[in-house]
TrEMBL record:
PANTHER family referenced in this protein's UniProt entry, alphabetically: FLAGELLAR HOOK PROTEIN FLGE, FLAGELLAR PROTEIN
Flagellar basal body rod protein N-terminal domain: residues covered: 5-33
Gene name of the record: flgEL
InterPro entries per the UniProt record, alphabetical: Falgellar_hook_FlgE_sf (IPR037058), Flag_bb_rod_N (IPR001444), Flagellar_FlgE/F/G (IPR020013), Flg_bb/hook_C_dom (IPR010930), FlgE/F/G-like (IPR037925), FlgE_D2 (IPR011491), LlgE_F_G-like_D1 (IPR053967)
Identification of the protein by name: Flagellar hook protein FlgE
Family note: Belongs to the flagella basal body rod proteins family.
Amino acid sequence: MSFSIGLSGLRAVNQELSVISNNVANVSTAGFKSSRAEFAAIYGGGQAGGVEMNNVSQNFDRNGDVMRTGRGLDLAISGNGFFQLKDGNGQTSYTRAGMFQRDANNYLTTSNGDRLQGYTVNGAGQLQTGVVGDLQVGTGSLPAKASTSLEFVGNLKADASNIDTALNPFDPAKAESYNFSQSSKVFDSLGTEHTVTQYFVKVGSNDWQVHYTVDGAVNGASTNLKFNTDGTFDAVGSGADKATLALTPAGADPISLEIGLTKFSQYASDFNVSRNQSDGYTSGDLTGVRIDPDGGLYATFTNGQSLLQGQVVMASFANPNGLLQTNNTSWQQSFSSGQPVIGAPGSGTLGSLTSGAYEGSNVDLTGELVNLMTSQRNYQANAKSISSADKMTQVLFNSF
C-alpha cells in the first residue's frame, strides 16, 4: 500500500510541476492567466489511498500589468471582462490578449485571424447597439461636407469706442470703420475652403453692428447685436438669435450659413474668440484607426475628421473558471461558466479599456519559483517514502 501511496504522490507532484512550468514559460505571454494545481486525498473503504490532482484553476481575479506600446490597436482591459472573438468557422471564443491588427479586408483580427466582435454601424454611420458582428474599418475616402453652421463664441470689449457710421461707413479696407474683425473657414460641397470674415462695429452703448465679407468680397448681410446691462446677449433687442449668410461658390451648391449669436458677450475685457468652428470639412483620405476608452472604433482622415466604425464589446461570466480553455489565452463558454453578459466597456461590471497598451501575464514569477522548490521537495519526499518501503520489504524478505 505504501508503494501505491508514494507513487500517487509522485504522479500528483509531477502534474503540479507541469502546471508551474507552464506558468513560468508564459510569464511574458499577453493575457495569460496563471494556473494552480488543486489536490484531493484518495480513500478506498475508509483506508488512505494517496493523492490525486483534482483540478487546475486559473486566477481571473488578478489583472496583469498594463504594457504600454503606443500601437492604436493594442487594447488592455482593466477589471472584469473578455474580448469576444469569432474564427472562420463561426466559433466564438473569449480572450484577454488585446493585440489586434487589420487584415487585408480591414477587419480587426488577432494574429491567428480570429475577428474582434463589437457593435456595428448601419449605412448612415449610426451605431446599432445590440447588433454584434465583425468589426471592420472602411477603406474609402471621406467625402467633403458643406458648411451649414458656424459656432462662434466671443467677447466684444464693452468700453470700445463708438464709431460714427455716418462719417466712417463700413469699409473692410479702412480700419477706422470697424472695431474688431475675425475670420472663419467654411467649406462648399466640393470641399473648397472659403473665408468668412466678421467685422464688429460699435454704434452705441451695448449696441453693435456686424458686417461680413466672403473671400474678401463684401456680403450684403448685416446683423444687429444688443446686450443687456450685465453683458449678456439680448435676443429680444437684437431681433434674432442667429444670422444667415447666403454664399454662392462657383461650381458648387449654394450655401446657407447660419451663425449663432447667443454666445456673444460684452464685458470690459479685451476682444477674444474662444470658439470659431464650422461644421463643414474638405475631403480626406484614411490615415489610421483609433479606439476610445468606451470601445468606440473610429477611422481617422487627413482632413482631421473621425468617422465611427463600431464599438468594441466585452463579455463577462458568472463563473470564469468554468470556461473551457482552447489555448493559453483564449476560452470558450461552457455549461459551468454560464451565458456571457455582453456590453460596452465600462458598463455594468465590465472593466475599462486602455488603448495603446496590452495586458501582460498575471504570473508572479517569484511565487512560482518558490512553488517550484516546494514541489521539488515534495517529489523527493514521495520518492524517499517509496525507497523506505522498498528497504522495509527487503528486510522482511531477508528475515525468512
